[in-house]
Automatic annotation (TrEMBL):
Protein name: LemA family protein
Protein family: Belongs to the LemA family.
Principal cellular location given in the protein's record: membrane
Native source species: Litchfieldella rifensis
InterPro entries assigned: LemA-like_dom_sf, MamQ_LemA
Length: 205
């Protein structure tokens, strides 16, 4: 009787040991890499959203300040307002990461706002009083800083997507993807629309 109990305990301990070894082996082989990298993509995307929203929030004050010194630049001011409206009309939650078409539309809308802001900055060169206005100078600093943060956030997002996609397509991640995470698809990323698209726009006054 005691011998049978001892054998049962031994077998149970052995099975537990094998289970622990298996868990440690799976962990060491990167079984958790795919969901971990996917969360990093989502986190990086939230920073992209935050920085674009920060820029959108600066636009109304910027437009009003320029308008006070350069009302005749109505066409340029209108273009900025319309570009902002278009950029902020696109819903940008996590679901956009699973919709390549929406992501492309979002990227295009933000690009149009960048272009409109660049034209507005060029117009400001013709108004010395505007360029020396303290409110305008403060907005200049905030916009320039935001453009730099946008560039960093986009770069970090692109890097996170690349890491996630590479994990899914290479060994051993490809195996774990087929066995455990087949519902998790490759992620879309930003595409450079010009040779220097990864650089922050120059905001000069």
């Amino acid at each position: 009787m005691h011998a049978k109990q001892g054998a049962t305990l031994y077998r149970s301990a052995w099975q537990t040991t094998i289970l622990l070894i298996t868990v440690l082996w799976l962990t060491g082989c990167g079984v958790n890499n795919i969901p971990t990298y996917d969360e990093q993509v989502k986190s990086a995307w939230s920073q992209v959203e935050n920085q674009y929203q920060r820029r959108a929030d600066l636009v109304p004050n910027l437009v009003e300040t320029v308008k006070g010194f350069a009302r005749q630049e109505r066409e340029t001011l209108t273009a900025v307002v319309e570009a902002r409206a278009k950029a902020t009309s696109i819903q940008v939650d996590e679901s956009i990461l699973n919709d390549p078409e929406r992501l492309q539309q979002f990227q295009q809308a933000q690009g149009e706002l960048s272009s409109a802001l660049s034209r507005l900055m060029a117009v400001s060169e013709r108004y010395p009083e505007l360029k020396s206005n303290q409110n305008f100078l403060a907005l200049q600093s905030q916009l320039e800083g935001t453009e730099n943060r946008i560039a960093v956030a986009r770069r970090d997002f692109i890097t996170a997507v690349e890491r996630y996609n590479t994990e899914i397509r290479t060994f051993p991640g490809r195996i774990w993807h087929s066995l455990l995470y087949s519902d998790m698809e490759l992620r879309e990323t930003f595409e450079a629309s010009s040779p220097d698209a990864e650089q922050a726009p120059q905001v000069e006054f």
